[in-house]
Amino acid sequence: MVLAFSSPDQIRRAADLLSSGDLVAFPTETIYGLGADARDALAVAKIYALKGRPSFNPLIVHVIDRAAAEEIAVFDARARLVADMFWPGPLTIVLPLHPQSGIDPIVTAGLQTVAVRVPSHPVARELLTVFGGPVAAPSANRSGKLSPTTPAHVVASFGADAPFILAAGGSDVGLESTILDLSSDVPVILRPGAITPDDLSRVLDMMPAIAQTSDDDTAPKSPGMLLKHYAPSIPVRLRAVDVMPGEALLAFGPTQFMGIRGGGFARNLPETQIRNLSEEGDLIVAASNLFRMMHDLDQPVHTGIAVMDVPDVGVGIAINDRLRRAANAKS
Ligand code: TXA
Ligand code: MG
After folding, report:
1. Does the CB atom of residue 114 touch ligand 1 within 6 A?
2. Please, are residues 180 and 115 in contact by the beta-carbon 8 Å criterion?
């Protein structure tokens, strides 16, 4: 752990850490964020591992300005109007994912939409400028703890596991950004924040709907307002100990003992029909591969995806949460 005052030298150091796939805690005007290069699946997987988050919620991608945001998300006139009114500032906008965004699917949790935000905090802006790329960042705290508004909160939450922290005093807003979903016709506030429904209504020319969502998956939500989850178009079979003919295999760990029902070995399946989350059984590597590999195997020529058992410890808890959702989803 390094607690660094945000001088130009330390911001450079933080940007270098991001470039080498490491995590950096940094100040924003809302709360402190735990950042990783949004194009680097392994770096983003470390966020989930460090936070101990029990599920893969999609993350917010932080960029320097609207031009950078337009490389990641598809903007229409309405989105541009809202962005130009409130950016930089505590507003996150959910939009369709740009087909050439370069954002790893672990960031959007496999969804075809992406949440983008242009922060106003000078240190966050300097970090984004020096780093020169998109930064995925949830709050810099362990899952279930209060959102950090000072460097001391970040230290207290992570203890000896704390990442490099760019310190710049207390956050102004102290509350996570307002999230506005503009990915469909009706604007929906997914999370209330400092930018209010009234503020938004003046630009949108209508009152946005307000979703009863929560980061806590066990909290009640109003029907139809659920955060969408990625689901493959073919069935997903969990805890598979063999592969049925026609099925694709999503493996974890060694596969030499996996058989195909009726004869043959899984390791001889064609390359298009098998992916291994981590041959070494590394859960962080597995997390970084999960959504990309599910997408790879989600082909109509396969009758389904057989998934080998993933241990329910550490970031494996989040992997299993997503696998269960994929298995139960009626898409
Ligand atoms: O103020 C903030 O927004 C802070 C600072 C660090 O910028 N960040 C933050 O990130 O609060 P996080 O990861 O805690 O919030 C992410 C939330 C998810 O729980 C989800 O509700 C929503 O953003 N979200 C992200 N991507 C989404 C998407 N594609 N569709 C719908 N909701 C999305
Ligand atoms: Mg959060």
Report:
1. yes
2. no
Task: Tell how far the Cα of 262 is from the centroid of ligand 1, in angstroms.
Answer: 46
Alpha-carbon distances of 34 from 16, 147, 233, rounded to whole Å: 15, 11, 33
Q: Answer yes or no: are the C-beta atoms of 67 and 302 closer than 8 Å.
A: no
DSSP characters for 255-273?
-TT-EETTS-BGGGS-GGG
Residues with Cβ < 8 Å from 95, sequence gap 6 or more? 73, 74, 75, 79, 113, 114, 116, 182, 183
Please give the Cα distance from 115 to 111 (Å, whole number): 10
User: 19-69 pLDDT, tens per residue?
Assistant: 999 999 999 999 999 999 999 999 999 999 999 988 888 999 999 999 999
Contact 57 CB / ligand 1 (< 6 Å): yes
Q: Give the DSSP H or E segment for 250.
A: strand 248-251
Q: Whose CA is nearest to atom 17 of ligand 1?
A: 59
Q: Which of 29, 53, 176 to mutate to test the pocket of ligand 1 (most atoms within 8 A of CB)?
A: 176
In the prediction, which pLDDT does 228 show? 67
- Decide: 111 in ligand 1 pocket, CB within 6 A: yes
CB 95 within 8 A of CB 183: yes
Q: Tell me if 113 CB under 6 Å of ligand 1.
A: yes
Structure tokens at 177: 């950004």
* E strand or H helix at 122: helix 122-131
Pocket test for ligand 1, best of 32, 60, 213 (most atoms within 8 A of CB): 60
282 CA to centre of ligand 1 in angstroms: 26
How do residues 216-246 score in pLDDT, each as one tens digit? 444 444 433 456 677 888 999 999 999 999 9
H or E, element range at 290: helix 283-297
